[in-house]
Write a structure and sequence with these properties.
The protein is mainly α and 130 residues long. The protein has 7 helices and no strands.
Amino acid sequence: MKIPDQRWLEPFSWSAVTSNNAAICQAKSALHKSTSEGHEPARKLWESARVRELSLIEALDVCRECHRLAPFCFFNGNTFAGIARAMIHPILQKLDAPTAFTLRSAVGHYVAGTIGRQEIEQVVRSLEKA
């Protein structure tokens, strides 16, 4: 399955990202607040990437970098990994259950920083060969 370049992040405005983080914080009884250092750089990166066609890996890199920039006080990983998982939902629907589980898990771990570039590239390559 060839995964085309596309505007992966277009459906997720920065306002939606912020609302997502607020909802996660509320559910976990945590303070939802922007950080003074990471919020603006993450917002600029996100908004510039939303209007561009990106490879899947490039879109995941934006999610990962925004997580690293920590635009919110809490749950940055949950916020951006959740968006990345939502972003790949159409692909997941076309896969058998074990493959979908592997991709969904790898995407979340990559955005959170617990697996590296080599591992996510390997997962994506295996999909494209199938």
